[in-house]
Amino acid sequence: METLLSLYQEPYDESRPVICFDESSKELRKHVRDPLPARPGAVARTDHHYERNGKCNLHVATEPLTGWCRLHVTERRRTTEWIDCMVAIADDYPDAVSIRVVLDNLSTHNPAAFYRFFPPEQAREYLERFEFYYTPTHGSWLNMAELVWSSLQTQCLNRRIPDAATLRSEVAAWETERNQLDVTVSWQFTNEDARTQLHRLYPTLEEAENS
After folding, report:
1. Band of the pLDDT at 37, cuts 50, 70, 90?
2. Which of 2, 96, 181, 201 is deepest in the core (most CB within 10 A)?
3. Does pTM surpass 0.90?
4. CATH assignment of 10-30+49-185, among 3.40.50.300, 3.30.420.10, 3.30.1130.10, 3.30.830.10
């Protein structure tokens, strides 16, 4: 935890960007009956019946200190999709000396997997450009990508979306608008705060002496 909090306290360095990465899913649901449109004095009304149409996975990468974000919509969530997202990040930051990525401990988030998809020399080149910082167990709140998910859910995904093509279109429009707004994050929770408010998570000197 303290490693992440120290990372968030560092000043902005364009040669070593900090990227927060996370994943989620969206169920696709078709209307059985067309919703009634909104009218003056009345909101749009949607029939509670719907038809399931599978689901898609969404992957978000965001740079909190600049407001940049990138979203990918995929049919599945495997290591190969994660590798594709990391390669896209590398392409988005061609001049970065090191790209520091904050992510959780999913089994698909395995740096060694680069060797499964690229020749050894190319895999090594990619890995030399990345530094991975994993959130602790039950510590997903430490990933600032969660803040982007919250906005995406309330501004874009809080309604029925019938198919993957519509989802990609809606998400792309939301991404474009957000990037134009330059919505940055000012992270306030520090190591000092953690030591005070989350002191129960730290081992005590007595425990250390008895171990």
Report:
1. confident
2. 96
3. no
4. 3.30.420.10
